[in-house]
Amino acid sequence: MEYLWAFIIGGLICVIGQILMDVANLTPGVILVVFVTAGVFLGALNIYDYIIDIGGAGATIPLPGFGYSLAKSAIKAVNENGLIGAFTGGITGTAGGITAAIVFGYLMALIFNAKTKQ
Question: Where is the chain membrane-spanning (predicted)?
Fold first, then answer.
């Protein structure tokens, strides 16, 4: 059942992004910013916790999950270190994911030959 809920929640996030591209004519870059910002707001309001409880990885892997991680890490760091935590919390909380994205992106660039669209 966990896999099904992860698929449903992750799929709903993707459907929302597709609707935003089709109906509102938003670019993928704008949708990226909207999703990360939504994750930050929903995480700060503790709403995204419920979505993660239902969807698991289907909620934490997409872009709103990254925003959620930023918000939770920054809030935790502010509670522990004061105002400086607002600047360091998000970086330390998401460092593993960012590092993985850079490393795997670099490896894929070495393995595959990218071509521009025509």
Answer: 6-23, 30-48, 83-112
Tokens describing residue 73: 């890490």
The tokens describing 56, both together, are 């698991």
Q: Which domain holds residue 65?
A: 2-111
- The 10s digit of each residue's pLDDT in 58-94 is 898 888 988 898 888 988 999 999 999 888 888 888 8
In a domain, 118, yes or no: no
Name the domain count of the chain. Answer: 1
Assigned domain for 116 exists? no
For helices 63-81 and 85-111, the axis angle rounded to 10 degrees is 140
Residue 30 and residue 26: Cα distance in Å, rounded? Answer: 6
Could you tell me if 93 and 72 are in contact, meaning their C-beta atoms sit under 8 angstroms apart? yes
Asked if 85 and 78 touch (Cβ cutoff 8 Å), the reply is yes
